[in-house]
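Sequence in, structure out.
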Amino acid sequence: MNSISFKVPAEYVNERADRVIAEQLQEFTRSHIQKVIEQGGLKVNGKAAGKSFRVTAGDIIEFTAPEPRKLSNEPQDIPLDIKYEDDDLLVVNKPRGMVVHPAAGNYDGTLVNALLMYCGDKLSGINGVIRPGIVHRIDKDTSGLLIVAKNDFAHASLASQIKEHSFKREYSAVIHGYLKQKEGVIDAPIGRSEKDRKRMCVTQKNSKNAVTHYKCIEELDGFSFLKLRLETGRTHQIRVHMAYIGHPIAGDMVYGPKSGVKELGGQCLHAGLIGFIHPRSGKYIEIETELPEYFNNFLMKKGALWR
């Protein structure tokens, strides 16, 4: 167990304990801190406390976290929906809810664990043992296409295309509300939020340029169905950009309404198309996949005519 104690600084008055800990101990995410507290890992002035406990200046906080688990890079027999494969690469249709590679809080059951079972040692090593073959990522609750490199030659070529913005990535999404401009470009830099390290935001501070092209396909009952194309590939880019213009992704519990969308149980965002120059043949390849069932069902419930 890892126990850390500190005195609450003078600037904190009647603040939630989990927020104060997150700001003072930046090696932990707020969600991880909340889980530890729920398991009895917090004492304030020697007494057990919950995550919503209000602390004040001078309180002594004792935070006790378990030792971090070792990340798993073991092969696991998890089904893969493969849309394209050759000796250099494969394209996988990732289901919503699957994490791409092991990380704190998601130690196994990831796409990488499945790839290690399917490909064995035939994966690129550029991104290390925890992310073999992974050229780019999509969020856990985003479904859709990911390209995986089987060797370093393919990986380097594909990564270069992404960096040069010649790698084509198109998404389908349902957003809250109706757009004033039915087609356009969002050009707004994205960086990590200073208030919550797990969130990204549009900011000029410590940020990178981010460009998203969008087009409204159909207006629904209180929602809109969009096609989007990434020019850059920042963390949570589409989700952050749509929330920034006041139209968050339906079901996005981080950047959207706190109530979420019960019909979905997750965010309505699907990486439906990728296009790239094959590293070895030099030919352009474009792969497209249909919307998942949950996405189509939501469109139908909202009266969509698009097919």
